[in-house]
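Support reply, case 0932

Customer input (verbatim):
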Amino acid sequence: MVLKAHPYLLQLVLPVGISFYTFHGLSYVIDVYYKRIKPEPNFIDYSLFVSYFPLLVAGPIERATHLLPQVKVKRDFNFEKAKEGVYQIIWGLVKKVVIADSCATYANAIFDNYETMNSLSLILGAFYFAFQIYGDFSGYSDIALGTSKLFGIDLLKNFNYPYFSRDIAEFWRRWHISLSSWFKDYLYIPLGGSKGGLWMKVRNTFIIFLVSGFWHGANWTFIVWGLLNAIYFCPYYCKIKIEII
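Our regenerated output:
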């Protein structure tokens, strides 16, 4: 098998889940550097934190300050927590297998033949895809959270009814929460956050979303996706400025 990488189209072959466990591991290195936590002397505990299997492929992206202390303490089997975990695993499977996979059938049928589809059909395809991606991603997160509860470990919540958000800012606080909060704490705030006024907010937002786009995939389409999301934030910042005035 020959693997090819195109330097201009960003078409790269990468290991499965690399974006998740890279950020997962970076949180430890950064927190140790800023002395939020002490370096872990036990190699087995550290290895378990880095390679904790329920979240390796699709998150949520854990923090060393949250997961590592849970790994180190002795845990006893808790029947109520385990039962809650099983329920969450089942609900995650329903989201993934019943909702996401069913919607994917219709979304793929529409977008694979978009040249022959009318406007209403394309809108319907976007509707199906919205539920597909939510069911797929949040379903896996529920499975990961539920599986962890069987071991007595609580992972970070990753979705909080994002499609009920009032604006784009609230949407990103509810969608893939572990990623949004990671970017805020480890990139947005170190860049200066919102302290420098409107211009710095806009600049940092563009940086965050461009990096987020590249994180989602090594392809120019994801870079454009990040740029569009940053542009969507601009009216939100103008609204805030007007309310302050």
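We compared this against your earlier run and they match. Two observations from our side: The mean pLDDT is 84. The CA atoms of residues 210 and 226 lie 5 Å apart. Please reopen the case if you see a mismatch on your end.
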